[in-house]
Design a protein that fits this description.
By secondary structure, the chain is mainly alpha-helical. It is built from 14 helices and no strands.
Length: about 325
């Protein structure tokens, strides 16, 4: 098992290197000149050249990439072009709301979707199965922003159950922190629940057709124990895989959800940075999310060795 984990750890290094190079290249090839946006419409050519020289944008591409990569290795993500603040400080100010939203969304999605998928597989072909799968299709089909606006209008404006926007840190009270994240988390989790429920149903349904499940039934094992102990445990590898892969979907959906509910997180910071062509912030955010995604998938690969002992060999 240690050899397997070591190989997976080593394999993440070239992945992150390729992600960093692709990210740096893509942003520099994108249309738009941040220097022109900084200088304004009345800037002269010599002003543009002076700003470009001060930002180091006049140097060769590989030199710029090497300097940026060296600073990243020392946890220096650069300085914002517009605010002049360190990118690491800007991201650290916004990471709390986004992490809170993603954490609640993941817990909510797993707690709801896995039992739904197991029950749908148990009642395959019945009305319960069709209702659960119809809900899954709905979660896939409706855009995140549409669900967000609908929940904000009904639950917040019409019924006045929950606040419609903003964020309160956890240190100011558990309920104050939670009540402003319920609607965004429900909005963001619907598509994730649909994905996990469908995969759980398919994996569990395949396991339920095996001989050892028939043997467990013949021995009088109860339905709950058979489904959630015997069947779900053996179907856990594809379920855990899709949970990890769905992290990317949540990251993308967080950008829209934070804009709808006015949450001051990484998503809104990304939108603002893109509109202003603030390359250092964009690079820092995307690199951070890429690193998190690689680490999540690494942890999932390692979890396979505990879920299925055959993978260790």
């Amino acid at each position: 098992m240690l050899a397997y984990i070591s190989r997976r750890l080593v394999s993440t290094l070239p992945v992150m290197a390729l992600v960093a190079f692709f990210l740096f290249s893509l942003l520099h090839l994108a249309p738009g000149d941040p220097v022109a946006m900084i200088a304004g419409d009345q800037a002269r050519p010599e002003d543009l050249e002076r700003i470009r020289e001060s930002l180091g944008l006049s140097r060769p591409f590989l030199v710029q990439f090497g300097d940026w990569a060296w600073r990243v290795l020392h946890f220096d993500l650069g300085t914002s072009i517009f605010s002049g603040m360190p990118v690491r400080a800007i991201i650290s100010q916004r990471v709390g709301p986004t992490l809170s939203l993603l954490l609640i969304t993941i817990v909510l999605a797993v707690v709801v979707a896995v039992p739904l998928g197991v029950v749908a597989a148990w009642k395959a072909g019945s009305l319960i199965d069709r209702v659960i799968m119809a809900f899954a299709v709905f979660g896939f089909s409706v855009p995140v922003f549409a669900i967000g606006y609908m929940l904000a209008y009904v639950a917040a404006l019409q019924w006045q159950w929950l606040p419609v926007q903003g964020y309160v840190p956890l240190d100011q009270g558990l309920w104050l922190w939670l009540e402003r994240l319920i609607l965004p988390a429900v909005t963001l989790s619907l598509g994730y629940i649909a994905l996990i429920a469908r995969i759980t149903r398919a994996a569990t349904l395949e396991v339920l057709r095996n001989d050892y499940i028939r043997t467990a039934r013949a021995k009088g094992v109860g339905s709950a124990a058979m489904l959630f102990v015997h069947a779900l445990k053996n179907a856990s590898v594809p379920i855990v895989t899709v949970v990890g892969l769905g992290i990317a979907m949540l990251i993308g959906g967080a950008v829209v959800t934070e804009s709808v509910f006015a949450i001051p997180g990484i998503g809104r910071l990304t939108v603002d940075a893109i509109l202003r062509r603030d390359y250092p912030i964009i690079q820092g955010i995307v690199l951070m999310f890429s690193f998190v995604y690689v680490i999540v998938n690494l942890l999932i690969d390692i979890s396979y060795t505990f879920l299925d002992p055959r993978i260790r060999y």
